[in-house]
C-alpha cells in the first residue's frame, strides 16, 4: 500500500509519497551533518580567547597507548587567557605536557606538579587574517558538501519520472530540495560571520 505524506510548503498544502519524503529526510540529514562538521572545524580555529577545544585531538602516551588528553584529564579555562589540564593520574603530567608541546599550537605549557598550565598568547594581526581565511575555507567546504547533496537528491528525483510520479510532485520536491539548500547555505554564512567576528575581536 502506498503511503502519502502531507507537507505545508509556502502556505500550500502538498501531498508526497513515502519515496519523496525519504529523499527530503536524507537531504536534510546530510546537510545538517555538513553544518555539524563546520561547527566542529570552527571549534579548532583558535580565536584570542582560551577554549578547551584548542586541545581537541591531542593524544598523549597513557601506559603505552596514545589517548586523547580530554579522556585523561579535566580541561578548563579559569580565565580568557589560560587553559589548565588536571590529569586524573598525576604520573601522566609529563606525557600530557610533551604532547601539547609536540602539537605545535604555539603554546608553552607549564607543569607545576599538579596540573599543566597554558597561557594563550594574543593573536597578531597577521595570524587573525590567516584564521579568518581558514574559517572562510571551511565554510566553502561546507557549502560544497551541501550543493553535492542537492545534486544527488535531484538525480534521485529525476529517476521518479520513469516511475509514474506526477509532474506536480516532482516540481514540489525539487523546490523543497532547493529550499533546504538555501536554508543550510544561509546557516553556513551566519556561522562563518560569527566566527570571523570572534577572530577579529581583540
Please tag this protein with its features:
single chain; 202 residues; alpha+beta; Topoisomerase I, Chain A, domain 4; Gyrase A, domain 2; four-stranded antiparallel sheet; two-stranded antiparallel sheet; 4 helices; 8 strands; 52% helix
Structural class: alpha+beta
| Shape, per Cα inertia axes | elongated
How would a textbook summarize the main sheet? Answer: 4 strands, antiparallel
**Which strand order does the major sheet show?**
5-6-8-7
CATH class of the largest domain: Mainly Alpha
Name the CATH superfamily classification of the largest domain: Ribosome-recycling factor
The helix-strand sequence is EEHEEEEHEEHH
CATH architecture of the largest domain: Orthogonal Bundle
The number of domains is 2
Rg value: 24 Å
CATH fold group of the largest domain: Topoisomerase I, Chain A, domain 4
